[in-house]
Design a protein that fits this description.
The chain is of the alpha+beta class. Helix content is 27%, strand content 29%. The chain contains 5 helices and 6 strands. The longest helix has 17 residues.
Length: 190
Amino acid sequence: MSSSTPSSTAGDGDAVESALEFAVRSPDSTRTRTITWQDPLPAAARGAQLSGMEYVEAIRTGELPPPPIAVLMNMTMRELGEGRAVFDGEPGEEHYNPIGVVHGGYASTVLDSALGCAVHTTIPAGGAYTTQTLEVKFLRPITRDTGRVKAVAEVIHRGRKQATVEAKLTAVDTGKLLATGTSTCLILGD
């Protein structure tokens, strides 16, 4: 049996460092994106005083800042209702994986956000929830050419201790189904 030791190269380090090194060597293929966000803890503290619906509606209307993940992933909460949430997003090449398509984590994050917010609309003031399971089924690849995507999530069961919610992710321009998601959330302090 042989063992191998990782070799050290000039590119060792994190992805940000590596991208900066490539930017010096390949400025013609380099792109940048500036990300601006607010400290999420004050909004979360304010949200703990509101019902789930009031909290997510305050984010949707801009009364409270969007969570940093929404800014990073370029997604927005568009509609809310009791047990329902609609998100949309614009995947770009900054979300690509090494094989040249948008990373599955992008679809998973948009779906997880819509799924969680659908459950959040059912939580009373002082209550909370956490995701127990998340299952995503990818049906079509997403690229920067896919354009805007939309996730529609609806709670299909809300009990005292858990909620089950389903969502579909579609391409806005074509209506094609890209992925589906299902989540079970643990209800805390209800």
